[in-house]
Write a structure and sequence with these properties.
Layout lengths: L9 H6 L3 H17 L11 H10 L10 E5 L7 H7 L4 E5 L3 H14 L4 E4 L12 E7 L4 H8 L3 E11 L3 H7 L1 H6 L2 E9 L8 E8 L18
Parallel strand pairs: 1-2, 1-4, 2-3, 4-5
Antiparallel strand pairs: 5-7, 6-7
Helix pairs in contact: 2-4, 3-4
Amino acid sequence: MDDVLAVPDSASAVFGDRLELAVAYAAQLAGAGIERGLLGPREVPRIWDRHILNSAVVAELVDEGRVVADVGSGAGLPGIPLAIARPDLEVVLIEPLLRRSEFLTETVAALGLDGVSVLRSRSEDVRPRARFDVVTARAVAPMDRLAGWTLPLLRPGGVLLALKGRSVSEELADSAASLARMGAASWRVEEAGAGVVDPVTRVAVVVAGSSGTGPKKDVRQRRTKR
């Protein structure tokens, strides 16, 4: 197991003096995370590159001191790696399923992560609304459905960071009308983790408008990187 969970050199650059917390989290995923079915056994050799580092590099896209909601947090991805890499953030892990929320609560306590809390809830039931600066999501739902769940959680100008695969540009293009209708001001694709993870993490960045009633006037000026 130790050889399988060998720490990549790039992890030190991402986590700095909090690397030991990341190592402890990797062990938690490879142990209780596998035992409880949060990850498949075949994911153990890929825990660092595919899961922890892939999530943590999203920190590049988050400004200092933000309040972050990680929707559909599951095993804590990307919320826990993000919180480890960025102790300046307040992170709320939102997860509706009991066994997953229990895992999250135990993990946060075991790691002693100040500023991280667990909320067992569906995103659409979270109150108060318009509370968060940033919402993160990884492998939760197609973009139009995900935006419907998460945009109401964001304050005006807040940002949804949805970790997606190679087809993210096409997914955003297909969802453009829905995003505009739900009040998104702009949307684009960003890449994070160059030189840390290969392939880089591709993120759909959706900015919430001033209200949920419609897009801002500059919605037609949105750009999508391909």
